[in-house]
Amino acid sequence: YLVKIDAYLVKIDAYLVKIDAYLVKIDAYLVKIDAYLVKIDAYLVKIDAYLVKIDVYLVEIDAYLVKIDAYLVKIDAYLVKIDAYLVKIDAYLVKIDAYLVKIDVYLVEIDAYLVKIDAYLVKIDAYLVKIDAYLVKIDAYLVKIDAYLVKIDAYLVKIDA
Fold first, then answer.
1. What domain of life does the UniProt record list for this protein's source (predicted)?
2. For the chain, which residues make up each domain, given as ranges?
């Protein structure tokens, strides 16, 4: 019986090694997820930088609009100058449109990363289900071992008597 118990203990050790391997894999996936989150953070920083630039351009546009209002009050002679400012404003609007397109591209990339992260989470969930199944099996083996130990104790009591 001791040989059988040793054999079961060896099997249990093998299962524990497998569980450790799964835990290492899970840790690797978590590291990958962290790497994707770092990338997402980098994109968010870039988006913030573009938003700051857009805000700067909007402030400049607002300043030009104030000047335009002042020139409109002054007389028709300033209409030529106003036209020049309107051209500049159009240039800024083109730049703003370009930045908005870039932001849309980054948002699409972020969505793609979120889809990848969701896929990894599904994989991790699958591994956790497998680990739970192994734990159930180990519990069953432990119950069997306990039963054998009870039998061994009974035989030892008989031998002592």
1. Eukaryota
2. 2-160
- Cα–Cα distance, 149 to 151 (Å, whole number): 5
**CA-angle at 49, arms to 45 and 53, nearest 5°:** 165
Chain position carrying tokens 């119950």: 143
Which phi and psi angles does 75 have, rounded to 5°? 150, 170
- CB-side neighbour CA atoms (13 Å) of 129: 6
For the domain bounded by 2-160, which CATH number is listed? 1.10.287.1490
d(CA 60, CA 56): 6
CB-based contact 22:53 (threshold 8 Å):
no
Q: What does the alpha-carbon distance between residue 68 and residue 83 come to, in Å, rounded to a whole number?
A: 9
pLDDT digits (tens, 9 = 90+) for 8-27: 889 888 988 998 999 999 99
Contact by Cβ (8 Å): 61, 89: yes
- pLDDT mean over 91-107: 94
Per-residue pLDDT tens digits for 113-134 = 999 989 999 998 999 999 999 9
Taking the C-alpha atoms of residue 121 and residue 123, their distance in angstroms, rounded to an integer, is 5
d(CA 67, CA 78): 11
pTM assigned to the model = 0.35
The first and second tokens of residue 104, run together, are 């849309």
